[in-house]
Task: structure prediction
Amino acid sequence: MMQDIFGQDTTISNAQALESWNRTQLAFLAHGATTPTHLGETLTAEPQFALGHAVKAMFYILLGRKELLATAQEAFEAAEAANSAMPASKREAYFLNALRDWMMGQPKAALRHFEAAVADNPTDTLAMKLDHALRFVLGDNIGMRRMVEQVLPAYSNTHPGYGYLLGCHAFTLEETGEYNRAQIAGREGLLLAPDDAWGLHAVAHVHDMTADAAGGIKWLSGREEAWAHCNNFRYHVWWHKALMHLDLGEVDVVLDLYDQQIRKDKTDDYRDISNATSLLSRLELDGIDVGYRWEELADLSANRTEDGCLIFADLHYLLALVGDQRHSAITTMMGRLHRDAKESRTDMQKAMAVPGLAAAIGLEAFGEAKFETAFINLARANADLQGAGGSHAQRDVFERLTIDSGIRAGFLDEAEAVLAKRTKLRNGRIDGYAAARQKLIADGRRAAGDAARVAAS
Result:
């Protein structure tokens, strides 16, 4: 039995496979585009490596695409066959057990096995990162932080995974409101792992959540190499930079980043669609004409109406369909969402029911300018929106739509309450969006008062 780069026992039997496996893990931690290449080389050199097949299946599930579940199933079956031919170690069995639950539509149950893995091996960086990725999809920010802080004391600053662990810690601190500590952890992590785009982007999140767009732009500028090597995650970092420019009212820069970076490659990966749709929605809420840009997103999203892997993905597909007024596709997607919500067997179907269905009804109503219905449903979803997954920055588009629909419906007090909750999450900092909406609410009240005085006279 050989040990990997993180000191974990593996059932790999040759040095070539081990070298490829180490590269796989490091690339995965860095969100590197070379991750699948290294994993393929690992399995070519060691075809009976059950953990390698299991991780391949997990990677495919995390892509959140219905048609890729068959590929994940093939990898799962290969992992089971490899385990029968050459039984996995106790440590590797945790991953296989997690995959079994995950394949059955119970990712929350899968987390228990990752927890057991790090309880036995606190410096198992692969188990930590997979747990982190899955909790991100589930919106479990508290669990993300608990897991990271459980294993932190076991790491030394010479451990090859320590920098990446600090990047994960930075993100969990930001998502739980510890902004100063998050920035410190993220910066420290990058000194140890300069290619850790996740940690770099965690610091960008801090700037977003503290209404420091200028500081965020300064943070990202000149550090492009830290995310140039990434898979499609690089588009997401450019998206963060675009948000900062939008907050400063630099619309031309935002549209240029959209065209030249965020949608440089017209993929239909749900994460890329979510970047694009949420940015276009923000622009339109600010009164910016985005021109033709909805069309290609709607074309892609119209093919995903029956997907149903992640409510986070579905809501962004729906944003695209609403943005381009694809009424037939919207009807199809809403029908499927209702069916999934009614069934509610898997963890993801339960998220379709709450908060997914109310959010979807609200988005559809917003697109039809039925702002009262939009606000009622979006506000209802807002209370449980964490369960849709993603980050505060990503879910903020739904909060903005909630607030704007309330203002347009004349629910000024209610919209103000949602806005106040949003500002509290940002430690009371007022960003460009909040300042503009405070003014709209004040103007609305003033206009209502003027109308009342005219009527009384």
Notes: The mean pLDDT is 96. The CA atoms of residues 298 and 320 lie 5 Å apart. The first strand starts at residue 2 and ends at 3. Strands lie at 2-3, 9-10.
